[in-house]
Write a structure and sequence with these properties.
The protein contains 12 helices and 12 strands. It is of the alpha+beta class and 328 residues long. α5 packs antiparallel against α8, α10 runs antiparallel to α11 and α11 packs antiparallel against α12. The protein is globular. The chain binds iron/sulfur cluster. The site of iron/sulfur cluster has 15 residues, from loops.
Length: 328
């Protein structure tokens, strides 16, 4: 076993100050980090346990909107009555991830910062630019059926594993954090990044930042939102493809729509082109398929993950068809 120090700061400022020490890593639920430590992928010199910090509340705002503390468990988030009623896709996404035991332990902040499940990232004997910059990417010629078709780079084709992040992208959530220069917030669209030539970086958070909460803005459209996930087995698996969507149809025409996809890119993929194609279009399966194709036009599948193109198209058509057929 590799020795490491353990600290449990009493306040958020103390946590950020401790993180300045080289080799420090935040610990919350530990459901991803501890696994990576066992595998030798994460080798921290110091764990900064933030589990005792005051971020376990869900606040609702009078004008609509919700603030979720970073240490709210995934289970408590999914069960929160306001979240379940006003943002059902968020609750469904959380419940689609992991097992009940893991959801009890895992936190919202940790969910957003979990690392890719690319098998080469998790195997220290393999070449991986994310784990060991400059070493190469064994996934390109190897096993990549579950990896990215959109927004990838020569250096990395990893996917973001979070179901929650997909739903948060759909509702335009923002992430609050405490950085070395004080409190700040970042749109979930800017939180995550494409791998480019720095796949070792998962997010645009300043180094040492502590996520403190997530804000879901008032979004009437989201009250009818849904999350749908396709995976290799019925339980406890990461997505092969997923979608969070909300749609407003008036007189048979799409008035407004939001679509985000999961398991297709290094980040939750907001399908902006598909949304543009759908607004003002008839709410038909043909329109939904054309919109998905507009988004997928930029896909660059590899040898074994091209199935994701029809998967995402069909997932989008089927979910939007179900949602619009249910519209009075
Ligand atoms: Fe590493 Fe990314 Fe290549 Fe996977 S896809 S081996 S995470 S560089």
């Amino acid at each position: 076993m590799r020795p490491f120090e353990y600290e449990r700061p009493e306040d958020p400022a103390g946590a950020v100050a401790t993180m300045v020490k080289p080799g420090s890593t935040y610990l919350a639920g530990g459901t991803n980090l501890v696994d990576l430590m066992k595998l030798g992928v994460a080798t921290p010199d110091r764990l900064v346990d933030v589990g005792g910090l005051p971020y376990r509340d869900v606040e609702t705002f009078d004008g609509g909107g919700v603030r979720i503390g970073a240490l709210v468990s995934n289970t408590d988030l999914a069960r929160h009555p306001v979240v379940a009623a006003a943002y059902p896709a968020v609750a469904e996404a959380v419940l689609a991830g992991a097992s009940g035991q893991l959801r009890n332990r895992a936190t919202v902040g940790g969910n957003l910062l979990q690392r890719t499940r690319c098998r080469y990232f998790q195997d220290v004997t393999k070449a991986c630019n994310k784990r060991d910059p400059g070493s190469g990417c064994d996934a390109r010629a190897g096993e990549h059926h579950d990896l990215a078709i959109l927004g990838a780079s020569e250096q990395c084709i990893a996917t973001n594993p979070s179901d929650l992040a997909v739903a948060l992208s759909m509702v335009d959530a923002s992430v609050q954090y405490l950085g070395p220069h004080g409190p700040a917030a970042i749109s979930v669209h800017d939180l995550y990044r494409r791998p480019g030539d720095r796949p070792d970086l998962d997010t645009n958070l300043p180094p040492g930042s502590l996520i403190t909460g997530v804000v879901l803005p008032d979004c009437p459209l989201a009250t009818g939102s849904r999350y749908r996930k396709v995976r290799d087995r019925a339980s406890f698996a990461f997505a092969a493809g997923s979608i969070a969507a909300a749609v407003d149809v008036r007189d048979g025409v799409v008035h407004d729509v939001r679509i985000a996809w999961g398991a297709v890119a290094h980040l939750p993929w907001r399908a902006w082109a598909a949304e543009r194609a759908l607004r003002g279009a008839p709410a038909t399966a043909e329109s939904f398929a054309a919109a998905a194709d507009a988004e997928l036009a930029g896909a660059k599948p590899l040898r074994d993950n091209g199935y994701k193109i029809p998967l995402l198209r069909n997932l989008t058509v089927e979910l939007l068809r179900e949602m619009t057929e249910a519209t009075p």
